[in-house]
Structure formats: C-alpha cells, structure tokens
Write a structure and sequence with these properties.
The complex is a heterodimer.
Chain A: E1 19-28, E2 31-41, E3 44-49, H1 56-63, E4 71-76, E5 91-94, H2 106-116, H3 123-132, H4 148-160, E6 166-170, H5 178-193, E7 197-202, H6 205-211, E8 214-219, E9 222-228, H7 229-237, E10 241-247, H8 250-257, E11 263-269, E12 272-277, H9 280-294, E13 298-303, H10 308-317
Parallel strand pairs in A: 3-7, 3-8, 5-6, 6-7
Antiparallel strand pairs in A: 1-2, 1-4, 8-9, 10-12, 10-13, 11-12
Helix pairs in contact in A: 2-3, 2-4, 3-4, 8-9
Chain B: H1 2-5, H2 8-20, H3 23-45, H4 50-85, H5 88-92, H6 98-128, H7 134-164, H8 168-186, H9 195-206, H10 218-241
Classes of the chains: A alpha/beta, B mainly alpha.
Chain lengths: 318, 250
C-alpha cells in the first residue's frame, strides 16, 4: 500500500502543524484500532473518511486526549493532548454520541461550556455561538426536547464558543436535514478561512466532497490515502470498475467492446456481460458508441462495485 | 489557580441537577423520611421514652442504612451519571485541572448526602430529642456531627470507586452492608477501618449516644477520617487524570 502524504496548507517549517501524528497506533488487547498512522494538518477543513469500524472515532479520541497512543506520537498544537488539560483551551470537540445534558436549555449548555473554558461575561459569545448554528429560536428550550439535528448543532455551538484553533468533529452531520447540513458546511468553511484547523469524520463520501479540501481515508485502522481531495477522488473514480451489462446480443457487444483500450477484460456470463474498465467516465461514452455500431440494444448497464466499501478496499489494495 | 477554582460552582450546579433528575433520588428521599415518621410515632405512642427510641433509630436506621445508601447513590452517581449518560466528555474536554473536577463533584455529592441525612436526623431530633432538654439537644448535635463526618467519608470513598469500576453502586452497597453494618459491629478490631465507627467517635465529642463509649476516641476518629478522605481524593484525582474512553470498534 502506498500512502500519499501531501503538505498541509499553511504548513511552514516555522510553524508546527496544528495536528500531527507520527506512526501513531492504538490497540485494545489483540484488536488494532489504529495502525501506524502518520499525517500532519494545518488550517483548513479535512475530512476523515472511512467505513464504519475503520478507526475514525479512535483516531479522533486520540487527538482529543481521551486515548493515549499505544505507540507513536500524537500532537495537537505541538503538545501531547493526553494528560494535558490546558490544551483544551485551543480545542473544540463534537463527539459522535448523541448524549447531552438533557435538562439544560440550549443557552445554558453553551454557557456551561463557556464558563468551563474560563470565559467571564460570556453572554455575548454564547449568543453569537448559538446564532452561528441557527438555534436562536430554540435556545431557551431544554436539550431533551431537541431533535437529533438540533442537538448536533447545540454540541457544535458548545464546541466553538471559545473560538478554538482546532475543531474536532465526529460524524457532525448525523441527523441533520439537508438545509442544516449546508449551513453547517458553510460554517466549517468560514472557520477554515479564518485560519482554524478542522478535522471531521464521516463515512459518506458526498459529505466530505462538499466541505473538505483535504482528505484522510482510513480503512481497517490504516491510512489508505491522504492529501488533496480531488486527487483522491480521481483515484477512486479511475480505479478498475466492473460493470454488468445486459443487452439484446451480449456476444456481439463483447466483440466490439474488447477492441477498446479502456476495456481490459470482458466475460460472457449467463444472460449478462461483465466488463472491466479503468476509466469509468470514458466508458459511459464507449458503451453508447459500441452498442450503436454493433446494432445492439442495451437493456441494463449497472456498476457492480460502487459501494464505498469496495472503493476503500481498492485503496487499501493499491 | 483562582480561575480554576471559579468553575467549581458550575460543576456543583450541573452535578446536583443531574443527581436530582434521577428516580433513585426520589426513592431515597422517601427512605430518609422514615426516621422522621418513626419520631412522630414514638412521640405519640411513648412520649416518656421517645428520646431513647430516637437514639436506637438513629443508630440502626439513619447511621447504618440511610447514610451509606445516600452516600453510595450520590457518591457513585456524581461521575456515574456522567458516564451513564455519556456527558463526561463535555466536562473533561475543558482546560480544568482534574482535581478541580473531583472537588466539584465531591462537594456536590457531599452536599446532597448531608442535606438528606442531616435533614432527617434534625427533624427527628426536633420531634423526639429536643423536648427532653439539654441532653436531647446535645444528642441531636451528636447525630448531626456523625452524619456530616459519615457523609464526607463515605462520599470520598465512593467517588474514586465510581472512577475505578462501572459496578461501583453494587460494590458500594455490598461494602456498606457487609463491612460497615455487619463486620464493624461484630469485630472490634476493624474499628480503625470503619466509617461508621469514625462517625460514632466524632458524635461522642458532643454526646454519648450509646451506653458504651464509641470504640474510637473523637480525636482518633477525626484523624482517621481525614486520612481516608485525603487518600480517597488523591486516588480519584489520579484516576481521572488517566481517564480513557472505553475501546470501541470505530
């Protein structure tokens, strides 16, 4: 496996990266949750992408100081977050768990966070944080009465009330409706433009695609790829794809397709044709032209391996 | 330092609200009403001997059952509620020394335990002991002192227990019933290791509740209680400073 590590934005030799992992690993008994992961991040939004169980939450908990690395080094703003509470002055954390102090109102919850951050006369900062996540109308209601998406937004408000340098979010868009997602993505973008380092986890490619400029792909505890989102996206798109085709004459279509350089394998199956191509976008044009020139009617064209898990598998196997 | 201490009231507030919201607190409140109810019954049924019965109820019900139960529920619940509800991350992801969090949680749990247990013995004392004159007033003072010392010691013990094991409530109740109630009464040798005996020793400073003096002198009881509280809180701080989230698949 080759891991690409591209330089993080604003990562100059003079400034320590906001987040840095060097050969970091974490295991529980015989189970390896995070394995030999290295990367560094500066200002900007970075998406931590991976299937469920990939080790995303473990990685975020190591960065948040709630888990010590079993091996390697984890640094946030140049310091080890485990056992050093003072680092939380510069970290905002949005955990995945839905749990909140259900008896507190939204305002009380954000104020509680502000006070524990040592902020005095925090009222204006509390109201500003609530406004940033669009919860003004519900601020006086108990968190227990909030929807899942509203609770997520309240958690984000609590995490950014002290204007942290680093924001860690674990599946922050869970439970949000599309409008709320867009607003939250805009907020993360604004914070990144203001020089903050934001790392959020997701198992949904489209979420990461919309907001992140950098991407870390974690699969089975290992860093499968990292760097510029577009480069990784291209890798994902241009990987070998298997496509199942049903047509009026599969054999005739197979003969035509095999002559195209973008197609490197064709297999005739019962009532179907299995085609492997390295360029999915090009293949869409090729199949249209090939069926027309062969005089074959297409009944069904279906990618056979489009699940995110298969994409991740490919990245690991590279 | 001053900035760190200023967050203690906030931690106390959130802990008290969290503990008050639990159903078991309501059940405990009903249990704490038992000595008060018995005090009224004694005053109506046997007014001449009500003070003697009051002292028996104090030892067998208030000190042996209500105090350890209240302390174990509030002591283990101070961190247990945060753990159960998954809110402890919001508390720990803050730039606060861990001993400040332990202090806030301890104050909250001690305050709730004292409010419940001292309230119960004070009300029962007003009904049964105050009418019997200066001795009755001194006996009430002794009971209050015993409850305050017992609350502080029990809570201090249960706080680190809740950070060391998820079964702190069960272990705490078992410990209170087996060690404190049964063994400390039967085996005089373990008086030095019994919170119940510390409480009775301090009570003797004000008034001798039993016919026999307490097994520990008041001074010894205060010193041993102080050592217990100090060791327990240092242990709690050590444990919280090394807090790690339980392992998960992701």
């Amino acid at each position: 496996m080759t891991v690409q590590t591209l330089p993080a934005p604003n990562d100059s030799p003079l400034d320590a990266p906001a987040i840095e992992l060097i050969n970091a690993a974490r295991w529980y008994g015989n189970v390896v949750a995070v394995n030999d992961v290295s990367f560094s991040l500066g200002a900007g939004v970075t998406g931590l992408l991976g299937p469920n169980g990939a080790g995303k939450t473990t990685l975020l908990h190591m960065l948040a100081g709630f888990l010590a690395p079993s091996a390697g080094i984890v640094r946030v703003l140049g310091r080890s977050p485990h056992g050093d509470p003072s680092v939380y002055r510069q970290i905002g954390l949005v955990p995945e768990r839905e749990s909140v102090y259900s008896f507190l109102s939204g305002y009380e919850y954000v104020r509680f966070n502000a006070r524990l951050q040592g902020m005095k006369n925090a009222d204006s900062a509390v109201r500003a944080a609530i406004a940033r996540v669009g919860l003004e109308d519900a601020a006086d209601r108990a968190l227990g009465t909030y929807s899942k998406g509203m609770r997520q937004r309240a958690k984000v408000a609590g995490a950014l009330v002290h204007d942290p340098q680093v924001l860690l979010l674990d599946e922050p868009f869970n439970g949000m409706d599309p409008r709320q997602r867009m607003a939250m993505m805009d907020l993360l973008g604004e914070m990144a433009n203001a020089g903050r380092t934001i790392l959020f986890s997701s198992h949904i490619l489209e979420e990461v695609e919309r907001v992140a400029t950098e991407i870390l792909v974690l699969v089975a505890g290992r860093l499968a790829a990292s760097g510029d989102f577009r480069a990784i996206r291209a890798l994902m798109t241009d990987r070998p794809h298997t496509i199942t085709i049903r047509s009026s004459d599969d054999r005739k279509l197979a003969t035509t397709l095999i002559s195209d350089p973008a197609v490197f394998a064709v297999e005739l199956r019962q009532n179907a044709l299995s085609v492997q191509t390295s360029h999915l976008s090009a293949f869409r044009r090729i199949i249209a032209t090939a069926s027309k020139s062969a005089g074959v009617r297409l009944k069904e064209v279906e990618p056979a391996d489009e699940s995110l898990e298969s994409v991740f598998d490919y990245l690991v196997r590279r | 330092m001053a900035a760190s201490l200023s967050v203690i009231p906030e931690i106390i507030r959130i802990t008290v609200r969290q503990l008050l919201g639990r159903r078991r607190t309501l059940l405990l409140l009903l249990l704490a009403a038992l000595p008060v109810l018995l005090a009224f019954i004694f005053q109506l049924a046997v007014p001449a001997n009500a003070d003697k019965y009051a002292n028996v109820v104090f030892d067998t019900v208030s000190l042996s059952v209500i105090l350890p139960l209240a302390a174990v529920l509030f002591g283990t619940g101070a961190f247990g509620a945060e753990n159960d509800e998954g809110t402890i991350l919001y508390l720990l992801a803050k730039p606060i020394p861990r001993w400040v969090i332990v202090a806030g949680k301890t104050f909250a749990a001690v305050g709730m335990t004292v409010a419940m247990t001292v309230g119960a013995v004070l009300l029962a004392g007003l009904v049964d002991l105050f009418p019997s004159g200066p001795d009755g007033i001194a006996a009430t003072e002794a009971q209050v002192a015993a409850m305050v010392v017992g609350s502080v010691c029990y809570v201090a013990l249960f706080i680190p227990m809740s950070l060391l094991t998820r079964r702190a409530l069960v272990i705490g109740i078992g410990y209170a019933l087996v060690w404190e109630v049964t063994l400390s009464s039967l085996l005089p040798g373990i008086a030095n290791l019994s919170i119940r005996q510390y409480a009775l020793g301090v009570a003797d400073w004000f008034f001798q509740i039993h016919k026999e003096p307490a097994r520990l002198s008041s001074t010894t009881a205060v010193i041993l209680a102080g050592v217990l509280v100090a060791v327990a809180l240092v242990l709690a701080n050590w444990r919280l400073s090394r807090f790690e989230l339980p392992g998960g698949s992701d």
